[in-house]
Design goal:
Immunoglobulin-like, 5-stranded antiparallel β-sheet, globular
Length: about 600
Amino acid sequence: MTNKSFRFSVRLIIAAMLATLICVVAQAQQPSSSDEKVEETKTGAITGTVVNDSGQPLAGAAIYVGAITVPGPGRYTTTDSEGNFQVKGLDAGLYTVGTRLPAYVSPPRDPDDLGPATYYRIGDSVRLVQIKGAVITGTVISSSGEPVVAVSVRASRIREADGQPPKYGILVYGERTTDDRGVYRIYGLVPGTYLVSAGGLGNRYNSFSINAYDADAPTYAPSSTRDTAAEITVRAGDEATGVDIRYRGEPGHVVSGTASGPTGGGVYSSFFVSLMSVVNGQTLSTSFQPPGSRGFAFSGVVDGDYDLIAQSQLGAGETAISEARRIRVRGADVTGIEVLTKPLASMIGKVTLEPSKAVECKGKRQPLFAETMVAIVRNEKEPTASAGFPRFLGSHAAPDREGAFTLRNIQPGQYNVDTRFFAKYWFLQSISSRPDVPPAAKAAAANQPVDAAKNWTTIKLGQRPGNLNVTLAEGAASLRGQLTTAEGQKLPAKSILYLLPAERDKADDVLRFFVAPVGGDGNFVLNNLSPGRYWLLVQPAGDNSLLTNAKLRRPDESKTRANLRRDAEAAKTELELKPCQNVIDYKLPTHP
């Protein structure tokens, strides 16, 4: 891979990590005690340590501190001999912190972990746990029993450690070439189930990766096509040996064409083209079309149905992408494909702060715009919303000093708006938008705001809708307490607490619905609560439970909210929260 291509791939990987975080973070973190200070430091450091699953420090681990809401690139460092790190000189904002160490991986997220993913701020300390990755190793031999030397071997994860399909599509998690004995060893694998293949799917415009096997159809272990391939399941630290492949050496087909459309010029003049399986969504290969080249080409493609997507960078953080082009390979090459990229959509908006006149709220700290993030979350249940588009593209933005923000690189589909902020005595009051209205439409229609918290916002390719308004209001309350049981009764292993609006005129206000995990000791905490009357409801946490505010408030969960509210009304546990009130040591019985 060329250096330029490598840098481009790294940017995409980082984008994937950030979008994943945006999707899984579901509710504002519990504010720290510093949230009650009126003034905040403007710069500071994030410190931390990296350990293995036994608690032993890991030295030499690469650390990446990504600026989510602060302009500019991320920061890099490494851990010292004690596994510690420190990144100084950070501006106030929200950050992600990640680590990478050869042969180690991050542990899979526990499906029973009800807490949200985390953003960090200056002054925070981070503890990152890494586990030893799995290994798959074996030998590739020819039909005559000779070692196949310098052939690429890939491990593609088809199921996660819990047996479920990968949440973000099937990806190649490891690729190595065989040595002079035909031996390969792929290490640092995330726990799960893999298919292992050799050869094929070469990139003709990447001169550093071309070899004699690129034009072949991939051979899957032990010596088969993908449909009959062996499945290899590995856990953390496992080493699956003897995953041998008898190389078939069958020729594949070529898929080639030309990508065109807007680019950023200079280093941003290349097109990045992906070939994805229609059957399982796996990205099989990528190709780069450099400036002045004749186009792109994939070799070693087997018969099947594929989606082809091209994208390019426009500069200023914006991306252009093509609609999915369906390709059918049936016993012959497919050439002359033309794909046209178009800029992804963007949306402008503003965050407004609405102070409270309540005496109890006087002197409370306001949210910092630098520590506020507006994000849009795609409706993954919509089957045709973004068919064929890479899952990692998403959008989030921080307001400027005036509260204005721009969401960029939005894929076509339906979206819900989510907001993160850190200020104990503030709550999310409303999210509204004014849809684009054709000139022939009545002027009155253009002035009717839409509740963007309650309804999906539909985005089309290249669209530039505006007027998204997010209002944060002062006066939030908080609730801290514990579940109580009857004598001899035990607490449920996993429970969740719902806080549901008791006022009938607020039954459809999705921003008045809250959910929080209950700890094993029965403790619970809810912050940033809008004042008002609520019903409380405790339920066991199940596989289909809505464990976060964002999921509970989704437009397609209106029936669930109605059912929860009905059950809570029947339980008759009511609480009224006043502006800026902190309720502590609240006892919530789990028995009649």
